[in-house]
Write a structure and sequence with these properties.
The chain has about 350 residues and is an alpha/beta fold. Helix content is about 30%, strand content about 20%. It is built from 10 helices and 17 strands. The chain has helices spanning about 5-30, 50, 55-70, 80-90, 100-110, 170-185, 210-215, 290-300, 300-305, 340-345; strands at about 40-45, 75, 95-100, 115-120, 130-140, 145-150, 150, 160-165, 200-205, 220-225, 235-240, 245-250, 265-275, 280, 310, 320, 330. The chain has a 7-stranded mixed beta sheet. A 6-stranded mixed beta sheet has the order 2-1-3-14-4-17, sandwiched between helices. The chain is globular and about 65 Å long.
């Protein structure tokens, strides 16, 4: 090869590389940055509870309202594990999440850009009383084993088989284990999360209905779950939602997986308040314009009047939020409001 040909060869290679690099540079500069307005899609992730089939109508309604607020394509990510949802929002793969307070705090600990955006108000339309209930329940046939001096308490749950929801659940783990730790004066909660220690056996139902099913099937002697997720399946037939020792009966019109337990009765040994979970945003992965647009739209009457999003809680089909009074609404919220749960979970 002559010197001239060699020169031409290297010139060609140089021009080819320059073109490739220029193309890469051009492509990079054209790609939208995380959190920029140029992103055309938004992904919202759900916990296993709200990923269930009976929440389909509510998820669809939320997807439509998010599109209406932002004009962007909305992707819905359902999950089978709390940790999948926590990782999705913390990593930015999802920009929005519907979470419990404990899960939000775990995601916030991984990424400080994870912020609470909205929560359901209390009955008077403010943050006062913005809570739901966590229970420890037993089958009514065995409930007398948990009575002392004629009153129900949790003295005899030690050594039993227990079902929690998930180690990342606020009402299905963090709150009930905090109560157990205090009642039995335990140094920490470590011995509560697995069998062969404080409990004979520890099960996780993955969802609140799943934890209740573990109790109804007899796989667990005691189970932790909340009221909101069980409303389509259980109703109070003696006492009240706030009173220890109340009887909850599986509804005669309950669908699977409760259909085979119609009429079965449970009794609550304890009831504790839990801070309402937040609608969470990754503020690094979603633009401020989108965040503000979502907050403005979702605090409007249009949302609280949407019966696929807010129901009275008496029907068979659950919704993401429950309209407990005409004043119930969504409110903007910040991390300070979750100080009690921060202290509860130690983060």
């Amino acid at each position: 090869m002559s010197n001239f040909c060699v020169a031409l060869y290297f010139l060609g290679v140089f021009l080819l590389l320059t073109g490739v690099l220029a193309g890469c540079s051009s492509k990079s500069s054209a790609s939208p940055k995380a959190g920029s307005n140029s992103n055309k899609e938004i992904t919202m992730v759900f916990y296993p509870n709200e990923s269930a089939k009976n929440f389909s109508a509510s998820r669809k309604a939320l997807k439509e309202e998010l599109h209406k607020a932002t004009g962007k394509k909305i992707n819905i990510q359902t999950t089978t594990d709390y940790n999948i949802a926590i990782e999705a929002i913390a990593s930015g793969k999802a920009q929005l999440a519907f979470m419990g307070a404990d899960g939000y705090i775990q995601a916030h600990a991984k990424n400080k850009k994870i912020e609470p955006l909205l929560l359901q108000s209390g009955p008077d339309g403010t943050k006062k009383g913005a809570s739901y209930r966590s229970y420890l329940m037993v089958q009514k046939d065995n409930a007398d084993k948990y009575k002392k001096d004629g009153k129900y308490n949790i003295d005899n749950i030690k050594g039993r088989k227990i079902s929690f929801v998930s180690a990342s659940s606020t009402s299905g783990f963090a709150v009930p284990t905090d109560e157990i730790q205090k009642h039995f004066k335990l140094e920490n909660k470590d011995q509560l999360s697995e069998g062969g220690k404080f409990f004979d056996k520890v099960l996780y139902g993955s969802t609140h209905p799943g934890s209740a099913i573990n109790l109804l099937k007899g796989d667990a002697d005691v189970a932790a779950f909340d009221d909101g997720d069980l409303t389509p399946f259980l109703k109070v037939t003696s006492g009240s939602y706030d009173k220890v020792g109340s009887t909850f009966t599986v509804r005669n019109d309950a669908d699977a997986p409760f259909a085979e337990f119609k009429g079965k009765e449970l009794v609550n040994l304890s009831v504790l308040p839990v801070q309402n979970g937040p609608f969470v945003v990754n503020s690094k992965a979603l633009s401020k314009d989108d965040i503000d647009a979502i907050a403005k739209h979702f605090t409007s009457k249009e949302i609280t009047n949407n019966k696929d999003l807010f129901s009275d809680g008496k029907g068979k089909t659950p919704t993401l939020w429950q309209k407990k009074t005409d004043k119930t609404t969504l409110l903007r919220v910040d991390d300070d409001w979750y100080k009690p749960t921060h202290e509860l979970v130690g983060k």
